[in-house]
Amino acid sequence: MNKITLKIDGMMCGMCETHVNEAVRKAFPVKKVSSSHTKGETEILTEQPIDEAKLRAAIDATGYKVLSVQSEPYEKKGLFGFLHG
After folding, report:
1. What digits encode the pLDDT tens for the residues 72-85?
2. Is 85 exposed, middle or buried (0-12, 13-18, 19+ CB in 10 A)?
């Protein structure tokens, strides 16, 4: 699983977050997407890698600007995750 963190300029409210989340869901098969206008950030969890150029294009089309993209492996930490360490 991959975790992609985007820094996004232009989100001002909860509706802005919804617009970005919907754009990501329409363009890619993601497990989870959540945005925060206060942080100016969107987090995406996905099984498959996402093409950064296509991701930027999908969000740019909504009128928001992607400032940076950071991708890293993601391991789900469940309630008893400490037992597996």
Report:
1. 998 877 665 555 54
2. exposed
